[in-house]
Amino acid sequence: MRALILLGLVGFAAQLVDGSLGMAYGVTSTTLLLAIGTNAAAASATVHLAEIGTTLASGISHWRFGNVDWKVVVRIGIPGAVGAFAGATFLSSLSTEVAAPVMSIILLTLGVYILVRFTAFGLPRGNLGKPLRRRFLAPLGLLAGFVDATGGGGWGPVGTPAILASGRLAPRKVVGSVDASEFLVAIAASVGFFVGIGSENIDFAWVAVLLLGGVIAAPIAAWLVRHIPPRILGSAVGGVIVLTNVRSLLRSDWIKASGGVQTVAYLVIAVVWAAAVAYSVREYRRDKANESVEAVESAESARQRRGAEEEPASA
């Protein structure tokens, strides 16, 4: 019972992060399932089955708050579904001994990317309003879908930063559109896993609990995306993913690191992680302070212009 409650809380927290950042539900949930001994294909299948419900709830919530661009959803979601089906069947064909470290490497890479991306760069906002081309979105969706299925997560970490980096879509619409399109990816990946491994390795109670936690969090996250500081949240989540998957790799048959090596590695990651979060907090506060100064200067400039226009009239 404790395990189910924990999974429900993880599903809630993961969807809260995913709905606010446009990434990390699958990466966070799969990382936990791997940490408690679930085999790679079954972990990814469990998460993707839960995501059918969570992404539907998240997509509807984002749509209700005006966070979805449906052209982007179609242009990235359909290629993403193709890539996810291919990735699911590929992962299903690997042995457990090979699949677990491979998935940990993919998750670790995505965790490092999230940590560095949000800590160092925050959210780019240039080029807003310019169209996103199909020739950009289709290959991106194909790659993100394949990585998502093989890594148990990755649709958001690959798709969201790439679209944000283009600077052509408002951040809240990037998050909403990526979350809405993930519904197609989750369905395709789930079908691929059923074809590859069947249903006997999937614990449907775990699926239901992850789904319940995610569905509860979805509308809250859709509202929070307008208010939460993504830079700080991205740094925090990236650190969790990096630490957990380094732990899995160091304990795997590929490395079998000694206890001392593991302790040193964890301490180094913890220090870097804490520094990253602190830096993100500092940069966020500085950006907010700069925005306040610019707002005051803009208001003062507007007041002076009005005063200059009123003087000739009164004369």
TrEMBL record:
Keyword Transmembrane among UniProt keywords: yes
Major localization listed first in the record, in broad terms: membrane
GO cellular component: plasma membrane
Keywords associated with the record: Cell membrane, Membrane, Transmembrane, Transmembrane helix
Cellular location(s): Cell membrane; Membrane
Transmembrane segments: 72-91, 98-116, 136-159, 180-198, 204-225, 232-250, 262-281
InterPro entries, alphabetized: TM_pro_TauE-like, TSUP/Inactive_protease-like
Basic and acidic residues compositional bias, start-end: 300-309
Source taxon at top rank: Bacteria
S-adenosyl-L-methionine recorded as keyword: no
Region (Disordered): 287-315
Pfam families per record: TauE
Bilayer topology annotation: Multi-pass membrane protein
Family recorded in the similarity comment: Belongs to the 4-toluene sulfonate uptake permease (TSUP) (TC 2.A.102) family.
The protein, known as: Probable membrane transporter protein
Organism per entry: Nonomuraea pusilla
